[in-house]
Design goal:
- By secondary structure, this protein is of the alpha+beta class.
- It has a single domain, classed as Alpha-Beta Plaits (2-Layer Sandwich), CATH 3.30.70.
- It contains 3 helices and 6 strands.
- A 4-stranded antiparallel sheet has the order 2-3-1-6, covered by helices on one side. Strands 4-5 form a two-stranded antiparallel ribbon.
- A hairpin with a 6-residue loop joins strand 2 and strand 3.
- The radius of gyration is 14 Å and the shape is elongated.
């Protein structure tokens, strides 16, 4: 029997409530048994307001399982959409402003 191969994978998270924070995303993924590396909520540069989407990097062995578990999970009373990310690097390279701590 072979051990599952865990890899770090980044997922696009859509339909985020505008008040959702990185810690909200981290908590919901951890509460569902996932090891979270990083989270990022995309924010408007000028206002710091959420753009309604973000990214979560998770250590997992099967992205299909994660998608079926996490798709539709509620974060601040809104069901999130989860997809394997193809564009997280683009947003990371733009150096989105940090989460507003006020």
């Amino acid at each position: 029997m072979t051990k599952p191969r865990f890899e770090e994978q980044t997922f696009f998270i859509g339909n985020l409530h505008f008040d959702a924070s990185e810690s909200d995303l981290t908590k919901v993924f951890r509460d569902n048994g996932y090891r979270v590396g990083t989270t990022k909520v995309a924010r408007e540069k000028s206002t710091g307001r959420s753009m309604g989407f973000g990214f979560v990097t998770v250590l997992c062995d099967n992205s299909d399982d994660l998608l079926s578990v996490m798709y539709g999970v509620e974060v601040i009373d809104r069901p999130i959409r989860v997809q394997v990310s193809t564009s997280a690097r683009l947003y990371n390279d733009k150096k989105l402003p940090p989460e507003n701590k006020s």
